[in-house]
Write a structure and sequence with these properties.
The structure is a homodimer. The first copy, chain A, is α/β, with parallel strands linked by helices. The first copy, chain A, folds into three domains: 44 residues, lambda repressor-like DNA-binding domains (434 Repressor (Amino-terminal Domain)), CATH 1.10.260.40; 123 residues, Rossmann fold (3-Layer(aba) Sandwich); 123 residues, Rossmann fold, CATH 3.40.50.2300. Chain A is built from 13 helices and twelve strands. A six-stranded parallel β-sheet of chain A has the order 2-1-3-4-5-11, sandwiched between helices. Chain A is elongated, with a radius of gyration of 26 Å. In chain A, 46% of the residues are buried. The interface between A and B is large, with 49 and 49 residues. The first copy, chain A, binds a DNA duplex through helix 2 and helix 4.
DNA sequence: GACAACATGTCAACCGGTTGACATGTTTAA
DNA sequence: TTAAACATGTCAACCGGTTGACATGTTGTC
């Protein structure tokens, strides 16, 4: 009953609070969870005791019982990238506002890491996962009965995918280069073996090129690819890179070769994240609505978590063409 | 005893595995934790049962009992920043390699968010926290009996702080500008009210300036500050920005005013993160050893977690001057 | 042949909350 | 006056693992 405080050495638990406040364990729990009848006087007493003892309810114990952790797992290649950095920032932000915490997993695009993260997240009883990484199939195979949302990645037949309107983005980018008078336009993208809606950027590129009687030609990003492109295509006058980092490498190489942008070569990227806009404002790009993507992804995940159904699988959000100095 | 599989609807638990394998709960636990005597035959049986049922041990239950979660909390302003993005990537990476998971908290530099995150992390029974955000005092006040490490931030008297050698970095940067013949050098930094070792960058700047009979003048970053600097100092010929993003804004403004860099104005930044180097390679900067900082921070945290003592409080890692086109 | 080491089982307490059932007493409203 | 609503307590089961104590039986070895 008495305040036997004086630097508690062990963790304070609910029992201790009950003793301090002179009430029962059940009453404290009632105060904590706002259930049943509680008088203001008792509520105050309990809160004071909690304050005095510096009590922090053990979420682990709570989670175990209620069978819910309020944790969401995020699996993405890396935070060390302007687009993902911004996306993850918003995902965390929105989740936090809705009472969820976030376990961060940097898969580095490696299948083995992704697999072990998935396993780890299941052991940790996360309430759901948002992933934007690697191959279809892995998650499908393990078939966790877990709420799941993909960002720019197909995870399985029935998991919702949120992405920007990649086809429209690819169309806008290609069309701009053509409108600016480019004749020999090349597209550079990531590995097309990944099953991602981002491949639509290339599809749109090819369609628009053909519509304009141009021959589409794509390169997959990799070691020395950009040099190769310049070497193999001396008459190149337009490049559509499927992300801004690639575009920046293109610009660097062009500079090295004294190719003037935009006079001799026009370049457009994709993503338009805040950091890229800040550090490389001269680059024209297709901007993804990152915050909206994050918003929708969390919303769809929470729907699943709460058992609501939603039949729409593919969600596309509008992109914005940002024209700058490279076109 | 029999495989009563056929799509398990509820969560598989240890009991189910025991039944499937035809052994006792204790034996399964022994296999799982590698304790006591277990024959190869039994071990195999148990593993097969786990596979068959697609069993994932409930870490929550385990954590509750062993009183350890293997989770580390990370409190940083944002992942949407080249430096923090890279730092957080490495922190997660290293933690993962050592068997720890990471709860991500974007404080946005807000005191209230930081406070509520701290509270949340304690409820979730994290094993420790690495923070690189905001004011001293908050964490100290709450005085959590929690392993704690700061990165570039003093958190309390006795919490270790890891940072780059800020004084040396500031010295190198300023000296470079002076060596290049700058006479009127201005420093731009973040709020000096934050108690962070990063303030040493400015101290070094001031010391070097005085040593060279120059008058040191610092501005705090904020709305329109850069314009103000140019307006108030028409004869300015050198700027040392305390991070690369600020430096990039300086470059942008200089371009707008047709001030030629480096001919009329030399600029040097601080951080040298991968993304900045990639997008803005022409910027001279002081590069922090991000991976080494992350490495050391995790190491120091684990030491605390494991009850080992370490009396050294301030850790400084060497920086590297990267000279490029802006100086 | 005996004793140590190996192999496994049963049982129950425990980690720190949550919850339902039930009891008792006090207010409040009709 | 009396029933409903309010306020709190006790008790025990439960969430899903872990662990120690103790029992029993099998091998291996000197």
């Amino acid at each position: 009953m008495k305040n036997t405080n004086e630097n508690v050495n062990q963790k304070v638990k609910l029992d201790d609070v009950a003793n301090e406040a002179g009430v029962s364990k059940t009453t404290v729990s009632r105060v904590l969870n706002n259930r049943g009848y509680i008088s203001e006087k008792t509520r105050k007493k309990v809160h004071e005791a909690m304050e005095l003892l510096n009590y922090h309810p053990n979420e682990i114990a709570r989670s175990l019982f209620i069978n819910k952790t309020f944790i969401i797992g995020l699996i993405f290649p890396t935070t060390n990238n302007p687009f993902y950095g911004q996306l993850i920032f918003h995902l965390e932000n929105i989740s936090e506002a809705l009472g969820y915490k976030v376990l961060l997993c940097n898969s580095e695009g490696r299948e083995d890491k992704e697999k072990s993260y998935l396993e780890m997240l299941q052991r940790h009883q996360v309430d759901g996962i948002i992933a934007g990484s690697h191959n279809r199939g892995i998650l499908e195979y393990d078939n966790p009965q877990l709420p799941l949302v993909g960002i720019d990645r197909y995870l399985s037949e029935n998991t919702p995918v949120v992405s920007s309107d990649n086809y429209d983005g690819g169309k806008k980018a290609t069309q701009l280069l053509i409108d600016k008078g480019c004749k020999k336009i090349i597209h550079i993208n990531g590995s097309p073996s990944l099953e991602t809606p981002a491949n639509l950027r290339r599809e749109a590129y090819e369609d628009v090129m053909k519509e304009n009687q141009c021959y589409p030609q794509s390169y997959v990003i990799g070691e020395n690819v950009i040099e190769t492109i310049f070497n193999e295509n001396p008459n190149i006058d337009g490049i559509f890179a499927s992300d801004d980092l690639i575009a920046s490498s293109v610009m660097k190489e062009a500079k090295r070769r004294n190719i003037n942008i935009p006079a001799d070569l026009k370049v457009i990227g994709y993503d338009g994240s805040e950091i890229t806009r800040m550090l490389l404002p001269e680059l024209s790009t297709i901007q993804q609505p990152v915050k909206e993507i994050a918003d929708l992804a969390v919303q769809l995940l929470l729907k699943q978590i709460n058992g609501e159904t939603e039949s729409k699988i593919e969600w596309k959000l509008p992109v914005k063409l940002i024209e700058s100095e490279t076109t």
